[in-house]
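To illustrate the input format used throughout this study, we show a single complete record. The first block contains the structure-token representation of the backbone; no residue identities are included at this stage. The design step must infer an amino acid for every position from geometry alone.
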């Protein structure tokens, strides 16, 4: 099965909400993934998005905002059935290739989300700072940047 990368549009919004709901159904709201519907819906409407599909099913997505000198990634999510299968790496590589010269990628991750940190560092993201007690559980946010 091949992974298809697609810029997500209005017609993809139900699939995006379905992917998030699958995550919430599996694990509930956790500090590492705290996206209740009242926060998620405005984010989906206000961000650019890219996703991976396999046989018509959305398997992973990234939401981001294009700022003048950076693209700020606000959400990185993989459907529970497709975790650790390389879909997020494909999407992050897609953004790295698409961003253009002089544009950085920014994102943040909960200090306890070690798998995500490992992936970001493997792809060349570097820690740029920390926000102590940033999350609802008072966990620290690690800020990453990619400028390559």
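Output of the design step:
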């Amino acid at each position: 099965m091949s992974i298809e990368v697609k810029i997500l549009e209005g017609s993809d919004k139900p699939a995006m909400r379905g992917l998030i709901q699958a995550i919430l159904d599996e694990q509930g709201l956790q500090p590492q993934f705290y996206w209740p519907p009242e926060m998620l819906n405005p984010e989906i409407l206000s961000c650019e998005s890219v996703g991976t599909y396999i046989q018509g099913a959305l398997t992973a997505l990234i939401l981001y905002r294009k700022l003048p000198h950076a693209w700020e990634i606000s959400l990185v999510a993989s459907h529970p059935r497709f975790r650790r299968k390389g879909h997020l790496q494909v999407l992050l590589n897609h953004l790295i290739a698409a961003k253009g010269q002089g544009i950085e990628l920014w994102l943040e991750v909960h200090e306890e989300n070690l798998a995500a940190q490992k992936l970001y560092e493997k792809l060349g993201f570097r820690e740029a700072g920390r926000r102590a007690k940033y999350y609802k559980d008072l966990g620290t946010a690690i800020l990453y940047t990619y400028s390559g």
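Structural context for interpreting the output: The chain has a mean pLDDT of 91. The first strand starts at residue 4 and ends at 7.
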